[in-house]
Write a structure and sequence with these properties.
284 residues; alpha/beta; Aldehyde Oxidoreductase, domain 3; TIM Barrel; 6-stranded parallel sheet; 4-stranded antiparallel sheet; 11 helices
Amino acid sequence: MILTPEVNELIDRAIQEDLNIGDATTDALVPDDLQAKAIIHSKGSGVLSGAEVGAAVFRRIDPLLEVEIVLVDGSVVEKGSVILRISGSAATMLKAERTAVNFMQHLSGVATTTARYVEAVKGTGAKIIDTRKTIPGMRSLEKYAVRCGGGRNHRQNLGDGVLVKDNHIAALKRTGMSLAEVVMKAHEHASHTIKIEVEVTTVAEAEEALKAGAQLLLLDNMSNREMRNAVEINKGRALLEASGGINLTTVKEVAATGVDLISVGALTHSAEALDISMDISYQV
């Protein structure tokens, strides 16, 4: 299901980026009829994501390659874990290698980072969610990788829900509207099928937004004490999302305040790639 038309188009663009005028090295040196076997394996520990995408890159460049997915996305990998096995033309394997591995390294890095956050809040009831702070064009795959790591997705795009942020509020306050009136206007004009989330920075703003009917509150850069107070006044009326400057060192304390969701931009914008590589054997 990950290989949607959007993802297939992204794969095609990535291949074109690397092979738009061919592979000067392989074309000059490697005979077309040289057969080989290869493995794609992890050189570190983490959570796998992108195996299916990597396999698709090899198959797209050469449909005659035999590609076996050994480990499925979401699997825990260790140093030496074999992810893909490939056999066929050595030349086309070499042409596909970097593009396939790039996808797999980055997506596995996102999944691994997410899994670390999920593990850190285990037992608290808080859920780790992503943001829209994604690499342009990679959002659907990065959000898929977050799910592979045990996290949840926030909005896929701006149409997925109403999130009234500080700049929306500031613009409307210049017209004389209060925060409560902004929330009520959102309810009046937005589709009944989507929820209204409001960014607040103080407990007083949280109370005002709740009274106006906000269904989710984004507690932006609040202290742990302020978040505990927000949880207390909320009394289950809305889902509470903690956001802003949260890292692996602080996330468990944030979860302990009683918030429902913790959004972490670092899951996608700062994930360290998992080290993955290809080894070829010419003894076939």
